[in-house]
Structure formats: C-alpha cells, structure tokens
Amino acid sequence: MTELFGQTHDAAGLAARTGNLSQIGGVRLVTCGDGLERGIRMLEFRTGSGLSFSVLVDRAMDIADVAHKGRAIGWHSPTGFRHPALHEPEGEDGLGWVRSFSGFLATCGLDHILGPEEVDASSYDYPRRNTVRHGLHGRVGAIPARLTGYGERWEGDRCILWAEGVVTQAAVFGEVLELHRQIEADLGGNDIRLTDRVVNAGFSRTPHMMMYHVNIGWPLLDEGSRYLAPVGDVVWTSHAPDLAVQDTGYRICTAPSATFREQVWEHAMVADTGGIVPVALVNDRLGLGIVVESRRDQLPCALEWQNFRSGLYALGIEPATHHVLGNRFARDRDEMIWLEHGQSRRYDLRFSVLDGAKEIAVAEARISAIARQPESAFPAPSGNFAPLDHQIGSAG
C-alpha cells in the first residue's frame, strides 16, 4: 500500500483519483538547454511525499538536486553541472575535477579515489605505459551513462520509481570497468536507494577503488547542525596537530567564513548487527535531517569533509573502500582491490530524509545505540589505520 497525504491507497484507488500517476509523482526524462549544462540528460524523480531529486544521466547517473517539501538538502557549487564535453580530467595537475564538482552525490572511482597520484600500470602489460596518472577522485564522475531503463513499476500495491544505467570507464591498454547503477524510491516514500555493481569487463588484472562523496548544503547545513555517527575511533585529520585552529570540531557545524580552509576527518565507524553504518546530518531548528546508510563490509572507511568557506558551504559524508591516504598507501599495504576478468563488487546505499523532531530523535537514538561518538569536539586522531580485508562479504 502507498501512503500519500495522510491516506493509504492501493493501485486501483490511486488510479481512480488521478488521470495519470504523473499528477502526484513519477520519473521524467528531460534535457538541459542552456549554459554549461546544455545537452545533459536528467531524470526528475518525485515521490509525492515532498521528496524530489534529479539524476544526471550524462554524469555517471550521479544525484544532483535533493529537496524535501521545498527545503534543499543537496549542495550546488559555483561550477554548475557541467556537460562532460567541458570536463578537464587531465587539467591543472590533476585538480581539473574541482571545475566540475557539484551536487548531492559525486561518485569517485572506479580505479582511483582521493588526491592526484602517479602509480604503477604494469598489470596492463603495455610497454609504452609503465605508470598511470590519476587526477583527484578519478574519472568516472564525468562519463555519460547508457540509460537502460527508467519509469514506475507496481509490485502489488507498492509503486517503485526506478532508473538503471551503465557507465563504462575504459582505455585501450588500460582499465575496462563498468558501473551498473540502479536508483529506486517508493511512491509516498522519503528514501532513495542506490545499488551499484562494478565489473571488470576487460581481460587485464585491474585495480578498483570507490568513494561516495555525499554533499549536503544549506539550509540543512547551517550553524549548529549536528553530525551524528557511530564513531568508534577518530583515525586521521587534515589539520592536525592544531585541531582547534579554526574553532570547528567534527560534531557541530559552524557558519560560513570567507577564510575557512577545508577540514577532512577519517573515522572508524561501528556497524549495527546487520552490518549497516548510519551517518546523519540534522538541523534541529528546521526539524530536517538526512541519514546516509552504507555497509561496512562493502565500504569499510568513512570520511567527513567540512567545507565551510563562504560561497562553497558544504558538508560531505563519504563512505569509501580505502583509507584517506590514497592509492599508493593502499598498494603499499596490500589493500588494493584487484579485479580479474568478470569479477565484480557490489555497493548498497540508502539516503533517508528525516522530517521533524521525532524522526531526528529516533535516528539519533539508533546511532547512539550502535556506538556513542566522542563527546569532545576535537578528539585526538589515533593514526590507527585498521587493516582492510576486501575479501569479506563485498564481492558482487
């Protein structure tokens, strides 16, 4: 059954009340027509509950806008949603990615995440290419998807809004990796479900890394907004040793500042009995929040990105396959994921809107029951990068 506007309806009841389901919700394919976004295909989702979001088909099927009852949740940067043809993946010593960085979800990977690096490429067995240079957060985020389907389907009296596509990141004498992405939401619901499968479609042994850069903006992000997470240990920070240099701890968000310098934290999260790690940002004044759920056996590392600079105001919740120190660090510790031909990895995420103080309190109690995060705003990082075993429970 579907709950909408305080009533419960079956499929026949909704059909009797609407000339077309699009009156209350659904998925619509549109194409942007102006500026840097011109030509980008976008899927607009409306669940009828007040949740709306858009999927950028031509940018790895990432999620651009997210809003609930007119209140923005997803972050927009000054770059806009640039058409992939304008992307500069090799530019600015590997930092060209920041000229196309915007939206609620920016997928990072598929063979590299985190800062620019040059690493060994001998697994591809091509004499002219001994190394490969990676820019910030990899290449996948600016690759158009092949849209394999979208729409609304009924499973009994439950209506599911859905979209599926395939993103191919490939090079001759290099990686041939496919991202198979499925996005779903229920009519009447406040959740977005994302399922990814990354497949090595080539015949060379290929490295794989993945990170989900989930970016939250104003008004959900505001002075006093709270970061809630089952933090078992604070592992690393970008601004040690003086953690209080900007008077901004990991737990409570501050107002925008023209001189703020980004801060990154890596936390070791504790999962619940089902292996789920829920991380939330909540705004008590608005009675609004978002929970990002990931599986610890799929994404064992967790980063928090604080970008509280004026005009760039954002907070990132970032589940990842690898530690914050990047590609070579993973290789040196024998923690890189290597995919042989046909092998795959699966990732499952859920983004849930919290509407009202009661839902915020329930989420906070749930997270605290898993692990009580450090009370200190400036917990000293332990430097304990736990060994990663990518063989457990995460293969596709």
Could you give the topology of this structure?
Elements: E1 2-4, E2 7-9, H1 11-17, E3 26-31, E4 41-46, E5 51-56, E6 62-68, E7 71-72, E8 105-110, E9 117-120, E10 131-134, E11 146-155, E12 158-170, E13 176-186, E14 191-200, E15 206-216, E16 226-228, E17 231-237, E18 263-269, E19 276-283, E20 288-295, E21 301-307, E22 314-320, H2 327-332, E23 337-339, E24 344-355, H3 357-370
Antiparallel strand pairs: 1-2, 3-4, 4-5, 5-6, 6-7, 8-15, 9-10, 11-12, 12-13, 13-14, 14-24, 15-22, 15-23, 16-19, 17-18, 18-21, 19-20, 20-24, 21-22
- What is the CA–CA distance across the termini? 31 Å
Determine the number of helices (DSSP H or I, runs of at least 4 residues): 3
Percent in strands:
35-45%
Largest sheet: 8 strands, antiparallel
Q: Which assembly state applies to the chains in this document?
A: single chain
Number of domains: 1
Helix/strand structural class = mainly beta
Shape: globular
What is the share of helical residues? Answer: under 10%
Using only C-alpha atoms, the radius of gyration works out to 21 Å
Low-confidence stretches: none
CATH class: Mainly Beta
CATH architecture classification name? Distorted Sandwich
What is the CATH topology?
A: Beta-galactosidase, Chain A, domain 5
> What is the typical, i.e. mean, pLDDT?
96
Question: What string gives the helices and strands in order?
Answer: EEHEEEEEEEEEEEEEEEEEEEEHEEH
Strand ordering within the main sheet: 11-12-13-14-24-20-19-16
- Beta-strand segment tally: 24
